[in-house]
Amino acid sequence: MKKIILLLGICIFGISLIVYFFRPDSNTYTTPDQISKVGTTQRESITADTSDQTENHSNDSAQQSAAPSGKAKKMSEEATHYYKVAYTYGWEAIVRDFENGTIAKSKMPDDEKKKLCELALTGTTVEQTKRLFVANCKPLSGQLSFRIINSQLKDTKGQVDQAEMIHKLKFLQAEDLFQSEGMYKLGPYEEKFNLQSNAIAWGLEEVSDYLLSIGIGYAGNSDNLINSNIQGRNPSISLVKKLMQAGIHPNAKTYTLIEERNFASKHPELYQFLQEKKQN
Questions:
Q1: pLDDT digits over 1-10, tens only?
Q2: Rounded to the nearest 10 degrees, what angle do helices 237-245 and 205-213 cross at?
Q3: Secondary structure of the chain: what % helix, strand, coil (to 5)?
Q4: What pLDDT does 142 receive?
Q5: CB-based burial, 214-236: b 16+ in 10 Å, e otherwise
Q6: 11 pLDDT band (50/70/90 cuts)?
Q7: Higher model confidence: residue 104 or residue 35?
């Protein structure tokens, strides 16, 4: 599970870079009014240039990716603009451009279209996901259950929308696209995990409780789930207590982690709780 958390951290860092480099400024951003008009025709696509400055900005700050030949190449301007809009305003405009065929007709390479589809499926609501399915944007593998447990779905207050995430898990079950367990294997190394590891690593207690209610428990994970939570985005004393009640206990690594991550000042209540358990 350590490698999974590391990979997750790298992905989060990559998304942060995208948001930083493609953040809107006063001259180049796509306004909400522009987004509301997106998707009626190819000409009105959000990939259309709004100014010379937008074009220059995209050229200068496009994300680098590895070409099959091993040479670095820039992400296409269209893909760059789609991600910029998605991470600034949400996925609705991208969903509409899948629906009206703008993305299918675009000059983006097929691998960029597939990647855009894959990421859209992880960050959209159930209703948006249904529309993507109708537009022939569908998951390439059964891993979608794991990928939707993230911080993209937000409620009106800007908090992670756990209710919508649970709704989406139910939808995937109904569509026979639900996968609850996985395995990471590299040579002789093998690591097992289930959806609980994702929910706990993100600190999503409501999602974790829902998974328990449908029979997906804490067992079946190679890593200590307390450590998964501590290393995650939202360490939770409530989740740690539930894990301990289920028979999972802190280990030597737990105490190394809370010292390395300065839990004494950042998460004092959880730090004190774990210190008390260490003494008992």
A1: 544 544 555 5
A2: 30
A3: 55, 5, 35
A4: 65
A5: eebebebbebbbbbbbbbbeebb
A6: low
A7: 104
Token pair belonging to 5: 């958390």
Question: Are the C-beta atoms of residues 205 and 193 closer than 8 Å to each other?
Answer: no
**Which whole number is the average pLDDT over 238-267?**
97
Q: Which two tokens stand for residue 36?
A: 């509301």
CA pair distance 94, 86, nearest whole angstrom:
7
- CA distance linking residue 163 with residue 154, whole number of Å: 10
Please enumerate in sequence order all residues whose Cβ is within 8 A of that of 181, keeping only pairs 6 or more positions apart, or say none.
192, 193, 194, 195, 220
Cα distance between residue 213 and residue 202, in whole Å: 19
In DSSP terms, which residues pair with 184 in a beta bridge?
Answer: 191
Contact call for residues 255 and 274 (beta carbons, < 8 A): yes
Q: How far is CA 280 from the centre of its chain?
A: 38
Pairwise CA distance, residues 21 & 84, whole Å: 9
Residue 9: the pLDDT is 52
- Looking at residue 129, its amino acid is T
Residues making up the chain, counted from first to last: 280
Determine the residue type at 222.
S
- Each residue's pLDDT tens digit, 52-75: 333 333 333 334 333 344 444 688
Per DSSP bridges, beta strands 64-66 and 189-194 are unpaired
